Amino acid sequence: MASPRVFVARLVGLAVFGPDGERVGRVRDVVVTVRVDASPPRVLGLLVELATRRRIFVPMLRVTAVDPGAVTLATGSVSLRGFTQRPTEILVVGQLLDAPVTVVEDGTAAVVVDAAIEPTRSRDWVVGRLAVRSRRHGLTRRGEIRELPWSAVTGLSLTDRQGTAGLLAVLETMRPADVAATLSELPVKRQQEVADALDDERLADVFEEMSDTDQRALLAHLDAERAADVLEAMSPDDAADLLGELPAAESDALLALMQPDESGPVRRLMSYSSDTAGGLMTPEPVILRPDATVAEALARIRNPDLPVALASMVFVCRPPSDTPTGRYLGCAHVQRLLREAPFELVAGVVDTELARLSPDASLGEIARYFAAYNLVAGPVVDDEDHLLGAVTVDDVLDHLLPADWRDRFTTESPDPEEVTGA
Question: In terms of pTM, does the model score above 0.70?
């Protein structure tokens, strides 16, 4: 490139030429991808206006040179299909300029007057720097213009600039934990808009990854009926933890709105202390009868909605097999199941020697149990040999870490899939 950094305001209006000097059109804007974290947005390409006034998209990878007077492409063959902006795209001139920001260093209020794009080592282009004008009160003096790195200003949310619909399109590609981390950084109003737009199952997955503070705040926004529906969609142990943080009258009211078959397991979990095996367990592990086949067991753990830790073993009980009524016989580890013929019975591979956890086992005892037996899940059994549920290692870690670990946890959200308007 002739210039390692190009300000968009100077780029707009430049003629665009093919490699043989044929004129393609003029640059009218720069298309960037929406980012939900603090990283500089990635440049997708140029919005180019043809002589016919049609506006098309030219990917940035086709740009070979940006000179003071022109932009040169690697090929003169471009798609002539009209540009249609996707929910995951932002126009720099059309939507980013004039945005209000705050300068981190001194807290000065400012507005964006220009943006500079620059190439990275990976051949991508990003919006690396911003030119901002300080806001001045009075009629005689305009604020000074400063050129700052993207990270030197706050308050510039691209998701705010392009609306909730675009944000939802980005969040749809992300893991629940990353969605929860993203929501925690958004304004309260935008958090509520996203929560209102998500379906109950997706919102429940996100709730399970939120900090206690964020959970309570967002739950308070939902009406009682919707809150009960989301609690029903959550894992019983996570729902019990959340309800346990609420005032008794509020949690009782929500439990009353839940379906009895959904609220029953939650009530049982809430009867135990939250730092015991009974309070940490899930009452919905994979349970099989002793006459089930290995093929049936493997089919059950192939369920894509089953957490990885719970898929590590199946628990074998005499009927009835629903917790907490079945008599526990033992467990079958997935590694053993994979080594057996599909027609064999799980009764023939059951591990009857593995120690069991009491529902009153403390957090320290549970941690030592997992360390001693190299497990990621373990059975919780009462004195009458009834299987009550299973504790998984992720729930143990959740309680061993500081109470505010989710508030301090930061994760780099994956780049949204690069899409173009062509």
Answer: no
